[in-house]
Specification:
The complex is a heterodimer of chains A (about 350) and B (about 550). Chain A is of the alpha+beta class. Chain A contains 8 helices and 20 strands. Helix content of chain B is about 75%, strand content about 0%. Chain B is built from 23 helices and 4 strands. The chains are: A alpha+beta (about 350), B mainly alpha (about 550).
């Protein structure tokens, strides 16, 4: 049985629909990530699960029991806020102990638990520090310790790394997943950052305008985005339109040239208009005599050396947007303005 | 904190009901009394003000003394503002505290202090008589325009120094250097660089001071004597002594009109003051005085302020122990005695007890009014919901209404059914609550507004019930601000004179009213008791002020 089930949740703010018929299930011990652009409803969904908002429609179930109207403080869930919301009038130790005090843990057990949690987030010895003396990364870890301390059945994290800079974020991301997995913690994680979602989650629910667009493991999501929106949100910006001119082998005519994808979605017939995306890492420079579909002659606009790869930007053909590909190493000697022959890997092409 | 519409209205209900009953209704009654006669709109009582030369003189005098007093405060305040803004010197913190002290003193204390200093039995006259063996006091300041002006300057210099000096301190001092490098002399630097930037602050401070002087009551009533009357004093005399209520109402109306106009002007000027200039933390603009001219200026300001602001208060203190020619506690002892020929049915110390009782009720009422109002106003603005902004203005309105008008409104409105409180002791704390409410609200509101709105949610998610959220989150974060609010309510209630004079019952005088009555009685003993009571009030107020200064975090620097 899933630990948490959301069934047909809808929510309006005034006349604006924020969530429309959202259903999902979180398995015990699973880290599920709600991913989406700002305004897609992911934070509202989190707040509804937390009991800080009430849904207009739908039910929330924990292990089969309806908790939709249970007040937040009786749900036994933890929530880590984006800006941490540490209690400024308390020390680090008192912050971590707050939830234990609310759950009426005896003092000795409380102290031991605080020690344990501070050790877990590598802040042992900080319990008497006032929270405003801490750095951003330390505050983040205190917030994590505080929300984990009362052993919540479900931990919710609302953009927990959003306020940190990139380097710190990458470090904490790894630590965070390690800690959550070590505890076997069921967690709901909200972020707008695809890299963060992929690194931390077991499954990702991609949200768009109050609905769940696609729900899958990170790998599956990346390899088989279900829609152009999903593809674009996951960083696949090379979007083309084309016409299917052959089914076996599958050939699509696009303004950039003929393309042969690895596979087609079921139910398409010859002559159908399709949308497709090409992953940026799915191109290489064509060999001298290479011919056939997937070999495109493109006009180079800019090139930008990035160390491990070179990013090249090509003119879009006939109203298509510009195409960007990453090439290994220095990426050949072509100059902007010249034509470059490029080969696309069949499995880098996703057709909708 | 997110509120449901029902809770929002429940929170609003208490302060709204209170304001409607005890502010809007009395003020509306004044309007009705002056403009509505025999069932129709009638300008007769307003016309009286123009037609009778006496009232015209009162209006002109009110404007005239307010202007002179404002100029006086500027003359002393501007050099002091400059010294505070630009120099660091020994004793500055102390002097800054001293400067604000007069502003928070109740009017009766200031009036009594000036009489103790320059009155017929004042320290100055006694010293001069002793020195030159005179038989009568040589200084005749009591019941003159001069003493009114002196007391007003005493009061309001701090406003000029705080407002102008505070603004001046954040003005980048390097601008003057830049102008000097471009060839501007000292006069040109003042004329073209400093003054244009400072002008809005000076104007705003002047408008504020003018407003205070314009609505001056206690100082004019006590120090001016029967020969002088501002509109405010005239409302009191017309209503209480002559019992001509329609004319008093017309005067109140005029007073409110002027006040609104001045407040409007002040708000406009204050908005111009906040034009972003190149602001700099004050301490970067301040240096110890270097040249002899600078040292002279700092010393002069230090001495002038110290003497002028301290002298009356010190005279009060000295006179309370030493008036009949010898040192002693006689006057303090007399406060405890009920003399049959006294103007009181009770001992003067009973007035202290009355005031303490009224203050306690005021604290209770003001805090229970201000707390829900603050929670309401601190709510994060949601969409086009303008109720909050509207309430914000409404809650500040009592500040713009003079206490005499308020007291008069109570006489007019609350002495007959449906709401007859004339005989109730509650009427005094109610009036005090109304006056203190904006201050208490402003003391609490910044804390609530500055609080991370997710804090209560964070506590809730950790298992805290709403009650425990209040206890563990709101209470620890708000208690300092609440204490500031409590002190405000207490000191305002203890010192309030104007409204109390109109509505207090003879058997239950407040402390300031008792002082006023004692001052009106002949004889050294009565005066001595007035002085002793004033000292008590002064100490209570000073303690309150120091307490508030201590409790306030992030004090403004200048």
């Amino acid at each position: 049985m899933p630990f948490l089930t959301l069934s047909h949740i809808s929510k309006h703010f005034g006349a604006t629909p924020v969530l429309q018929d959202v259903s999902l299930a979180v398995e015990p011990g699973e880290i599920l990530c709600l991913l989406g652009p700002s305004g897609c409803g992911k934070t509202t969904l989190l707040r509804i699960v937390a009991g800080l908002e009430t849904p207009d429609q739908g039910q929330i179930l924990v292990q089969g029991n309806v908790i939709t109207t249970l007040p937040s403080h009786r749900r036994d869930f933890g929530l880590m806020f984006q800006d941490y919301v540490l209690f400024p009038h308390m020390t680090v130790g008192d912050n971590v102990a707050f939830g234990l005090k609310m759950h009426r843990w005896p003092r000795a057990r409380r102290m031991a638990r605080v020690q344990e949690l501070l050790a877990l987030v590598e802040l042992s010895g900080y319990e008497n520090r006032p929270v405003y003396e801490l750095s951003g990364g330390q505050q983040q870890r205190v917030a994590l310790a505080r929300s984990l301390a009362p052993n919540p059945q479900l931990l919710m994290l609302d953009e927990p790394l959003g306020a940190l800079d990139r380097t710190l974020r990458d470090q904490l991301l790894v630590a965070l997943r390690k800690i959550l997995k070590q505890l076997g913690q069921t967690a709901l994680y909200v972020t707008h950052d695809q890299i963060e979602a992929f690194a931390v989650a077991d499954r990702v629910a991609l949200m768009r305008a109050g609905r769940i667009e696609q729900l899958d493991t990170p790998e599956a999501l990346y390899l088989r985005p279900a829609s152009p929106f999903a593809a674009a949100f996951l960083g696949m910006e090379n979007i083309l339109q084309g016409t299917l001119i052959s089914l076996r082998p599958p050939i699509i005519r696009t303004p950039a040239g003929l393309l042969q994808p690895h596979e087609l979605p079921a139910g398409l017939g010859v002559g159908a208009t399709v949308q497709l995306v090409i992953r940026p890492e799915g191109a290489r420079l064509a060999q001298e005599n290479e011919k056939g579909p997937n070999v495109l002659a493109l006009q180079l606009l800019h090139r930008s050396f990035r160390g491990a790869h070179t990013l090249m930007q090509f003119a879009g053909m006939a109203s298509a947007s510009e195409l960007r590909f990453e090439f290994a190493g220095a990426g050949g000697g072509a100059h902007p303005g010249q034509s470059v022959r490029v080969t696309i890997e069949p499995d880098a092409i996703v057709v909708f | 904190m997110k509120l449901t519409p029902l809770r929002r209205w429940l929170l609003a209900a208490l302060p709204l009901l209170f304001l409607s009953l005890f502010f809007i209704y009395p003020v509306a009654s004044i309007f009705k009394l002056s403009l509505w006669q025999n069932g129709r709109l009638d300008w007769v009582s307003l016309q009286v003000l123009w037609q009778k030369a006496y009232y015209l003189r009162v209006i002109l005098f009110t404007l005239w003394q307010a202007m002179l007093s404002t100029l006086g405060a500027l003359a002393l305040g501007l050099p002091a503002a400059y010294v505070f803004a630009r120099f660091q010197f020994w004793g500055k913190t102390w002097l800054r505290a001293l400067v604000t002290l007069p502003f928070v003193m109740p009017t009766v204390v200031v009036a009594t202090a000036f009489i103790a200093l320059v009155g017929p039995r004042g320290l100055l006259n006694r010293a001069l008589m002793g020195m030159w063996h005179l038989s009568s006091p040589p200084v005749h300041l009591l019941h003159t325009l001069s003493i009114i002006l002196l007391a007003h300057v005493f009061y309001n210099t701090s406003v000029i120094i705080r407002m102008v000096g505070g603004f001046w301190a954040t003005m980048d001092a390097r601008q003057e250097g830049a102008a000097a490098v471009l060839g501007a002399g000292p006069w040109q630097r003042w004329r073209f660089i400093t003054l244009p930037q400072l002008a809005p602050a000076i104007m705003a401070a002047s408008a504020m001071v003018f407003l205070f002087n314009f609505t001056s009551f206690g100082v004019v009533l006590i120090l001016g004597g029967p020969g002088f009357a501002t509109i405010e004093v005239e409302i009191y005399r017309t209503a209480v002594r002559l019992f001509n209520l329609p004319v008093a109402a017309a005067l109140s109306l005029l007073q409110m009109g002027f006040t609104l106009l001045l407040m409007w002007g002040y708000t406009r000027l204050q908005q111009r003051m906040t034009v972003p200039l190149t602001f700099q933390a004050a301490r970067h603009n301040q240096q110890p005085p270097r040249t002899w001219a600078q040292r002279g200026l700092v010393a002069a300001v230090f001495l002038a302020l110290g003497l002028f602001l301290l002298a009356p208060l010190l005279a009060l203190l000295v006179q309370s122990f030493h008036l009949g020619g010898r040192w002693g506690l006689d006057f303090y002892r007399a406060l405890l005695v009920n003399r049959t020929n006294s103007v009181f049915f009770v001992t003067p110390i009973q007035a202290v007890r009355n005031s303490l009782g009224f203050a306690a009720v005021t604290i209770l009422l003001a805090v229970s009014m201000a707390l829900p109002a603050a929670f309401l106003l601190a709510e994060p603005r949601s969409g086009s919901f303008s109720l909050v902004r509207w309430l914000d203005t409404l809650f500040m309105l009592p500040l713009g209404t003079s206490a005499v008008t308020l007291g008069f409104g109570y006489i007019v409105a609350l002495n007959h059914p449906p709401l007859n409180l004339r005989a109730s002791l509650l009427i005094i704390p109610i009036a005090h609550t109304l006056i203190a409410f904006p201050f208490v609200l402003r003391a609490i509101l910044p804390v609530l507004r500055g609080m991370n709105q997710h804090l209560p949610e964070a506590a809730q998610m950790l298992g805290a019930s709403p009650k425990r959220v209040l206890r563990h989150i709101y209470w620890p974060m708000m208690r300092r601000a609440l204490l500031v609010g409590v002190i405000f309510a207490f000191t305002i209630s203890m010192g309030e004179f104007s409204a109390s004079l109109l509505i207090s019952r003879p058997q239950f005088p407040t402390l300031p009213v008792a002082i006023y009555r004692l001052l009106g009685q002949p004889g050294v003993s009565n005066f001595g008791q007035a002085v002793a009571l004033s000292v008590l009030l002064m100490l209570v107020t000073a303690a309150g002020y120091l307490g508030i200064e201590q409790l306030r975090t992030g004090s403004e620097e200048f």
